[in-house]
Amino acid sequence: EKRGVVYIGHIPFGFYEQQMRSYFAQFGSVTRVRVSRSPKTGRPRGYAFVEFLEPEVAEIVAETMNNYLLFDRLLVC
Quick one: signal sequence residues (predicted)? Predict the structure, then answer.
């Protein structure tokens, strides 16, 4: 089964897995959220991957959220 994955860059500090899952659920079914973290410190690296059940939803999110201002940060998709 094919899923849609979106890269989200420049994520604001404090906007982690739980917040991302809740926020992106407005677009469609979120099946997985993975925030990249430093292996040494465990701190977020500022980007994440959000997986959606439908690939079409992922395309819409990538187009809609690219350059979207969220908590004083411009997101990159």
Answer: none
